[in-house]
Amino acid sequence: MKRCADANTPFADGRIGNNAPMTITRVAWIVTVLVALLTALLLLLSGYTGYAGLGVAVAMSAAINLL
Q1: Do residues 29 and 65 lie in contact, with contact meaning Cβ atoms separated by under 8 Å?
Q2: Cβ(29)–Cβ(62) below 8 Å
Q3: CB contact at 8 A, 67 and 30
Q4: DSSP 8-state symbol, 3
Q5: Phi and psi for 4 in degrees, rounded to 5?
Q6: pTM of this prediction?
Q7: 36: exposed, middle or buried (Cβ count in 10 Å: 0-12, 13-18, 19+)
Q8: Which of 3, 21, 51, 66 has its CA 20 to 30 A from that of 59?
Q9: What is the pLDDT of residues 13-60, one digit of tens each?
């Protein structure tokens, strides 16, 4: 029977621990996108379809900065 290394050990994958930290500006853009989408959803539920579309457009514009 062949023994294999556990996939969760630190030596199983050289990429473990090499993740770059998320910058505060990226967090801010993610929060902005989520707030714009929440605003669009609330406006849509209230019957303001045009303003809800504007909220989605703002969310999409903010999401461009995440690419």
Answers
A1: yes
A2: yes
A3: no
A4: -
A5: -120, 155
A6: 0.70
A7: buried
A8: 21
A9: 566 667 788 899 999 999 999 999 999 999 999 999 999 999 999 999
